[in-house]
Input
Amino acid sequence: MNTNSKTSPLGLCFLSTFLYRSFYVIGLFNIIISISKSDSLFSVIIGSIIGFVFLFIYFYLNNHLEENNIFEKINKTFPKVISDLFIVILIISFMIISSYNLYNLALFINYNLLNDISIIPISILLLLCITYLSIKGINTVIRTSGILIFIWIFLVIISFLALVNYSNPSNLYPFLVNNPLNIFKGGIYYGVISITPLLMLLLIPKNKIENNKRYQKYMLITYIINALYFIINLVLILSILGYKFTNILKYPDIIILQKVSLLNFIERIEDLLSFKLMFDGFIFLSLAIIYIKEGLINVLKIKSNNKIIYFISIAIIICSLYLHLTNIEFTIPFMISILIIHFFLLIFIKIKNFTNNSQ
Output
């Protein structure tokens, strides 16, 4: 991976915002509501705490072997057979997750913007743009995030100011009537789904990041802001629609955006506002293709070449259109596998450090 220049901590925080939200519209919101119902707010709070644990695991791994990316760290920590196995699992897991993301992002565009066009050309055109961005490299993905974040913030502010008057707090009740196990399960799902994409940032070695202490501080603040955003948006949607109605909707965000008008006379601007919901999947897929590329280069010991990206993109779109993945629960085992590998990496690093210090 070409990372000759230092990466800005602020740029990575902008990128992480989209990674945290990668599955928000295309499955995360719906599964939390279906599991936790009117207690979804408590699941998100529990999930945010779980996410904090994995965030600190990310910080620890980021600080270890600061000149190496995640694949090189795995190679230096485990025997070759195990390291290759772990890298292959990471590649396959992100391939499946990316296929899910692409298919459901195309469904979202088809449902809201291009309902007269088949999902196949939408997927192809979408992936062509994503592939082009991936070929430009990770620094271009970061700069693109920096541009999109300001558009996203602007659209979020418009949406919130326009919708807050429609909220009805009574729609949030009753609280704590669901099975506690379901609330906790919803929390685990939220933590796993929201934090897994962030681990792709371990592709960037620590010594390629400007001011790592500031970076960790910014990342903590970014995580808290995104957790609060999800909580506020969840409360807003539930207070407008109620959890029973929300639970039967595929895209409740779009339904409430239909209430928005500009200056009380320009109607039907939800198509414009819905663009903020597509940025997340676009950025996730761009970085995921780069991540898979670096994994293949590492495990196959081949020379870095952007032509690999074309093969990855073709594989993702074939997998996407063949599997037709619409249930986010299918991706959970793959996300958990990714988290387990990083957890094992943490444990083995600590064991090695303890052994070295004891000698």
User: Anything to note?
Assistant: Residues 262-267 have pLDDT under 50 and may be disordered. The chain has one domain: 9-352.
